[in-house]
Amino acid sequence: MPAEKPTYIQIHPADNVLVALTSLxxxxxxxxxxxxxxxxxxxxxxHKFTVAALEPExxxxxxxxxxxxANQPIPQGAxxxxxxxxxxxxxxxxxxxxxxxxxxxxxxxxxxxxFMGFHRADGSVGTANYWLVIPLVFCExxxxxxxxxxxxxxxxxxxxxxxxxxxxxLIAMYRSGKTAADILQADLQPSPVGQTAKKLFENxxxxxxxxxxxxxxxxxxxxxxxxxxxxxxxxxxxxxxATVLSLGCxxxxxxxxxxxxxKRDPGFSKPLIMLEQQKMGTESKLLHEALKQTFAGLMEANxxxxxxxxxxKLCIGLECGGSDGFSGxxxxxxxxxxxxxxxxxxxxxxxxxxxxxxxVEQEMSDRCVDEAEALRFMHLMRTYNARAEADGSGFYANPxxxxxxxxxxxxxxxxxxxxxxxxxxxxxxxxxxxxxVTRPGLNLLCTPGSDVESSTAExxxxxxxxxFTTGLGTPxxxxxxxxxxxxxxxxxxxxxxxxxxxxxxxxIEGEETIAQSATRMLDYVIEVASGLKQPKAVILxxxxxxxxxxxxxx
Length: 554
What we know:
Layout: E1 8-9, E2 17-20, E3 29-32, E4 35-38, E5 48-50, E6 59-62, E7 65-70, E8 85-87, E9 114-119, E10 125-126, E11 130-135, H1 141-151, H2 164-175, H3 180-185, E12 206-209, H4 220-234, E13 239-246, H5 254-264, E14 272-276, H6 277-280, H7 283-301, E15 307-310, E16 315-320, H8 331-344, E17 348-351, H9 361-366, H10 371-390, H11 401-405, H12 411-418, E18 427-431, E19 441-445, H13 451-460, E20 465-470, E21 483-487, H14 490-495, E22 502-503, H15 505-508, H16 514-529, H17 536-540
Parallel strand pairs: 11-12, 11-13, 13-14, 16-17, 16-20, 17-19, 18-19, 20-21, 21-22
Antiparallel strand pairs: 1-2, 2-5, 3-4, 6-7, 7-8, 9-10, 9-15
Helix pairs in contact: 1-7, 4-5, 8-16
């Protein structure tokens, strides 16, 4: 007979709580380290319960680190809640370097493998070939939309809209005299997937039209950072060229953008079209010129072809959103194992979301390759948290209601699991927003915990693929980098197959090891990077793009 699957797990030997792998009733017997006790309360799947009674102020450990303290006496076998524990994390200081690590043996099987990518003049390799159309200031958003309406469908880059036939059905019911109650009870049938026009430029993956609400009216720090972020997108290996619309009088000046481009690529040679409305005059002059020059740029970009590239040219963004109590024991460790393989092959990975590194600062700073990087990391963490606290909301406020509902009841619990995405390799560089990756290995990038702001920044830093773990389900994507959605549990993978790509619930169910899940994921990444498969976010046209206003965002 097959072995009985475990119903709870201890993540680290130092932990004084266990994680329920399935919902457990009060009175359920627990056998742990040679001792037996019965659950004092029911414990929902993904939530934690005590292995011994805790007195007020007693520490709570998970992943081997402090993640909370008891607010009140907690009986043995009782579920942890937002009422009986609160966020707590150990302080951190400059420590000794702990940079020894072992490249996973699985890396050997990938050393001779390649992906088919677009080779750029600066030596980087793209996993896609896009043209960007972007505004320097929000005043140009309408003109960007006009260009999108004019170009996308005609050139074969528009996504099928869908749902029009459902609206036709609703209109027909209304006209036939149906009541609101009738309409609410109606069973709408899915729209047939419409055929899009054949792409005119076969070697271009798409034209991406970005909008944002920045560039003027805010702080100069934010407008300068916006220019740096946009420069990261323009110089990105997945971008063949760009059209930039400027009003002219805004804080985010074209000259600042050009300086930021040179910082990231001193020999920049991609087609770059910069048009200023206040110089050109009428809207039609601006848009006619934008159409002509963009079309000519697309003709040039279409000449580029995919060619083999080593896996060292991968730069993978590590992201999570809608996290749950299984994130830190399934999908995130699998990403960590994949990260170690990619680093072992000479590639780069980016771990961001600094509010979700709260509680593991000592470990991450000790893993920095030198004291300068460690000190920079600690400075960014302390400064960011202090700014948040000054506005009445420190890192402790990061977990969302959904996180809490699914077992992440303190920021340190969430953070300790989120950090697992970074694997075990040394930290080669610490970057502040919106800096670019220049060193292979594990890079730490200061961003908010907000997943779209964070993934937007990771791509600007050079991520040519993003791996995104989720326990609750999120459709997040990016305009220019494929975002691969990884489910932490099989239930959400089955419930939301239209937005999720890979299931790591197999780890929870004992059907697959972390290493097996990681290599399966890496095989999929190579296919995506080669243009052989499209993640769901790409298929749906989920082009999320939110620049970070350096004011507090968790």
